[in-house]
Amino acid sequence: MNGSPVETVFSMLNDTAVSLQDARASSYLEALAESGEYWFSGEVDEELDEVIKKRLAHAYESHPLENYGKEEIRKAYQLAILKGMKEHIQPNHQMTPDSIAMVIGFLLDKFTSNEQELKLLDPALGTGNLALAIMNQLEGKVSLTHGVEIDEVLVRLAYVGANLTEQPLHLYTQDALEPLFIDPVDAVISDLPVGYYPNDERAADYELQAKEGHSYAHHLFIEQSIQHVKEGGYLFFLVPNGLFESPFASQLHEFLQKQVHIQGLLKLPDSLFKSEQAGKSVLILQRQKEGVNPPRQVLLAEMPKLSNAQAVQSMMNKIGLWMEENKK
């Protein structure tokens, strides 16, 4: 069957992962990570059954890694991960869609147009799809991304994805709200985990801790991220549309006024989400720095459907005009 390169790679990864899943009696996602490691290294575990070993070796030899582009590999790997996530649904196993990664990548590139090289942080890395999509999109501009993730399966998937796409991703398997031993970065990108943070003792170290009960995890992630970006650096967060309408909104707004300049809030099209209530926006912040002024006017916009290329281009042109008027 002659399909696109993405379909071809997906089919190979899927077939080999299913073989390993059966052989190991493991989850599909664990088997997928193992398959990706074998494809990258060119070596298959000697302890596997001879029939499976030959099957895997033939699959990898028939699909040399160098025959495919970084985006073809990332998209095929993403499709296989999505398949695995549908089989074993867990609340923390979610992936930022490519269309949203494209928007954040565009904004990151625009706001850092004077920078030749960027070091990034994603404190809620997940499978790494957001970070890897942006790194591919910016074609060498990102010299390093620090990714923090507590789930070991997701860390392994991100590790394999970074190897397969040859992207410099430094991984930290930990709770991102514990102390991070990471030098300040040029920018933060993150699809923030939304909900309550269960560790009240740890939350007590944050200004944005709740006065009573559990604190909002997404608020604490914002505070932690601001502490790990350089003065004058940018932060791009995927946030719930009701971020500034929640019970703790006034506390968050007061904190942000002291720490950052709010650059913009872009509402993403509802069509990207399962329901209007699940809708999200991209929040753009800049850490305060002496000599850096807030924008004359905050960028407030609603993105059109991303399938409407003409409307998207028009919006990007408007963002470009806003940049000229507000980022001189």
Write up what this structure looks like.
The chain is an alpha/beta fold and 328 residues long. It is built from eleven helices and ten strands. It has an eight-stranded mixed β-sheet with strand order 3-2-1-4-7-9-8-10, with helices on both faces. Strands 5-6 form a two-stranded antiparallel ribbon.
Keywords:
alpha/beta; DNA polymerase, domain 1; Rossmann fold; 8-stranded mixed beta sheet; two-stranded antiparallel ribbon
- Taken as a percent bin, the fraction of beta residues is 15-25%
Tell me the CATH topology of the largest domain. Rossmann fold
Number of distinct helices:
11
Oligomeric state as shown: single chain
Question: In angstroms, what is the radius of gyration?
Answer: 21 Å
Shape: globular
Q: How are the SSEs placed, and which strands pair?
A:
Elements: H1 5-24, H2 28-41, H3 50-62, H4 70-87, H5 98-111, E1 118-122, H6 129-137, E2 142-149, H7 152-164, E3 169-173, E4 185-191, E5 196-197, H8 200-203, E6 215-216, H9 217-227, E7 229-240, H10 249-259, E8 260-267, E9 280-287, E10 299-302, H11 309-326
Helix pairs in contact: 1-2, 1-3, 1-4, 2-7, 4-6, 5-6
